[in-house]
Amino acid sequence: MRHVIIIGSGPAGYTAAIYAARANLEPLVVASSVEAGGELMNTTEVENFPGFPEGIQGPDLMAKMQAQAERFGAEVLYDDVVSLELDGPVKKVTLGSGKVHEAASIIYATGSAYRKLGLEGEERLSGRGVSWCATCDGFFFRERTIAVVGGGDSAMEEANFLTKFASKVYVIHRKDSLRASKIMQERAFANPKIEFIWNSEVADILGDEAVNGLRLRSTVDGSERDLEIEGLFVAIGNDPRTHLVHDKLELTSQGTIWVDGRSSRTSVEGVFAAGDVIDPTYRQAITAAGSGTVAALDVEHFLAGRGEAGEPAVADSPIEGLPDAAVV
Ligand code: NDP
Known about the structure:
19 strands
């Protein structure tokens, strides 16, 4: 039986893994089969993660976090959790491969999933002009006219990025002001390829085989009009990924996993949660990483209470020029 299994491989999961591995807890990280690395895998330049004054690409940052966790002995599995048994002292994690892993504790750090508009055409035309990931699909829209829906940082980031490819990018927002941070807003306002369509929502996505337009509805007077575009990027936020624990862990009214105060302790003993899945407000890579730290320390404390905590880890490859030493 493992000391701890970490479910999720975003900043929260990998930071928890770094701390747990350095505490000799030999964590197993279930990283997911297709979404390993979490949301930052879909991001381009990350400019606000401390320690990278020139910025760093999202996937590079995640690769570094993974390497750091593995360096101290974390084991990473590219598989998906299909079910969980969380009650009692032995937690059971069943993977897509059919394998069942057991642990004394769990850190649940599954992050959040792209929110959908809930329109019929959205699913039907997904991959045929509808996308949730500019970095994945932007390339397909060279010299095309496209739209981004949303008014937050994600929408601004996507819109700016997409102007590298598209000839024109409409940003459709249901209000007359943005939720995005000032710097992201200013960048978008200054971009000559971006045009804002305010007080409008997408009522329908048009096209049979591929997207060829949108039906927009005014949020002021309900009037409708069609807009010709060939691609729609949906950037309206995320929802916490709680589907595996809906009936097992207490949730908050906002749909995140309930944790006890500033800790990571959930409503079930031995189960801890971290990152976007507990955070309806801040949802930054750095806050998720901090939250992963809290979870690993809580697990250490929990296991110590059961007489199971390990010794401090020693790095395999110490910082160049320094003698081998217990890393503190
Ligand atoms: P947000 O929740 O911040 O914004 C979502 C936007 O989508 C809002 O403008 C919201 O409108 C709109 N929206 C929500 N639902 C619908 C709907 N059904 N139809 C139409 N519009 C809708 O999500 P983000 O993904 O933008 O950002 C999440 C977090 O990640 C934030 O904390 C953000 O700061 C951070 N982030 C930071 C980045 C960076 O700093 N580089 C990059 C990307 C994200 P309304 O305003 O009316 O509610």
